[in-house]
Amino acid sequence: MSGGKGLVLGVALVLAGLAVGVWFVTREAAAPPAEKARLTVAEALGGTGGTEGYARALGPREFHFPEDHGPHPEFRTEWWYWTGNLETADGRAFGYQLTLFRSALAPQDAVRASEWGSRQVYMGHFTVSDISAGRFHAFERFSRAAVGLAGARAQPFQVWLEDWKAQGGESGVFPIRLSAESNGVALSLSLEEGKPPVLQGDHGLSQKTAAAGNASYYYSLTRMPSRGTVTVDGHTHEVTGSSWMDREWSTSSLGEGEVGWDWFALQLSDGSEFMHYNLRRRDGSSDPLSAGSDIPPQGEKVRLSRDEVRIEVLDTWKSPHSGATYPARWRISVPSRQLVLDITPAQADQELPVSVHYWEGAVRIQGTRAGQPLTGRGYVELTGYVDAPRQTR
User: Fold this and answer.
1) 3-class secondary structure, 157
2) Does residue 29 have a pLDDT over 90?
3) Measured in Å, how far apart are the chain's first and last C-alpha atoms?
4) Strand partners, 245
5) What is the largest CA-CA distance in the chain?
6) Tens of pLDDT, residues 102-111
């Protein structure tokens, strides 16, 4: 989430990989055959594996940059998350996701004597939506943070999982250079900072349930000018566009009865951005702490409560991979902001058939603000639809 995404789902995915055994050094797969998830999102984010010995997100904190771009190993999990919409000069459209997750196997005071031993496991997800061709490429990779295989640092900024990496520029964090390649699909981008960081929730504290500590520290870079190349089918394409970066760290987030979330990160043609995550409960309701923000072209974000945002599901799509039925078109209305948005996937099949199936993909937007027409592009993340009843508000 990225909601808070994109994402604590990374914890579930790492732990799902670890269910096979923690002996591995690295693993990578491209869209494996459908299989039953070993661990649900709710189990992982509710504190499976225990919280003792880890820090908790208990209240607002001061953020410090560039330090907070780097790792927070005192927390059990965190992620660095980028998505974006890109285009060639002649209009060929692509979407991408690159997410690098860190998950702790033990608190910081645990001792690992071997040079191969590590308290941290990293996982990566890399996708390219070749929208003009109607193809979706998805890859997953795991590695221990040992002998230089994976890791993160703030200065100079770098997060890496073998040759999947985000690396800061010579003068500091920006521009961030993203690079990933698998099975002939490759991404190489340079991302400028764009707008300053947006501290989501209560000055960066994103509370997911009423229970103390079920929260994350969460900030976003919502409009990062991007340029570089995308390689598919043996051809490299020069592209430009806009990216969204989410950063979260936490020890537990979801509470009892929560099964997943619908997360929206939208960049609009009036220079504003909109983010909302709807935390779905097993009984069909939306958790009261579902929340979001409306970010104007200049100035401070406006916090939005659950009751200020109405989400209507206008269509669904059934995955041929997992059998899950996902929402596939939405109307979001925010009367307090005079905002109405119709959101449609850029292509239907953008489900990641990885350790835990979820849908994350590029979307297109038509709408109005104060009666004036809007267009836009963005990304939507849908978790908890496999092995759980479909929930809509």
Assistant:
1) coil
2) no
3) 18
4) 82, 221
5) 64
6) 998 878 655 5
390 pLDDT exceeds 60? Answer: no
| Size (the chain), residues | 393
Joined together, the tokens standing for residue 178 give 């993203």
Inter-residue contact 227 to 240 (CB < 8 Å): yes
| For residue 66, cis peptide bond before it (omega within 30 degrees of 0) | yes
Residue 305 pairs in a beta bridge with: 291
CA 60/CA 71 separation, integer angstroms: 18
Q: Scanning the structure block, which residue is given the tokens 């703030």?
A: 154
- CA geometry: angle at 344 spanning 289 and 392, to 5°? 35
| Phi, psi of 85, rounded to the nearest 5 degrees | -115, 130
Residues 356 and 386 sit within 8 Å (Cβ to Cβ): yes
Looking at residue 72, the DSSP 8-state letter turns out to be -
Compute the CA torsion angle 241, 65, 169, 248 (nearest 10 deg).
-50
144, β-bridge pairs: 121
Alpha helix stretches (DSSP H) within the chain: 9-18, 41-45
The residue ranking higher by pLDDT, 20 or 349, is 349
Instruction: Write down the pTM of the prediction.
Output: 0.88
Residue corresponding to tokens 């990779």 = 141
Half-sphere exposure in the Cβ direction for 177 (13 Å, CA): 11
**Under 8 Å between Cβ of 88 and 116:** no
pLDDT digits (tens, 9 = 90+) for 119-167: 889 999 999 999 999 999 999 999 988 888 999 999 999 999 999 999 9
Instruction: Count CB neighbours of 372 within 10 A.
Output: 10
φ, ψ for residue 55, nearest 5 deg:
-70, 155
In the chain the domains, ranked by start, together with CATH numbers, are 9-382 (2.40.370.10)
Residue 196 has pLDDT above 80, yes or no: yes
- What is the C-alpha separation between 68 and 197, in angstroms, rounded? 11
Give yes or no for residue 247 having a pLDDT over 50. yes
Whether 104 and 199 have beta carbons less than 8 Å apart is answered as: no
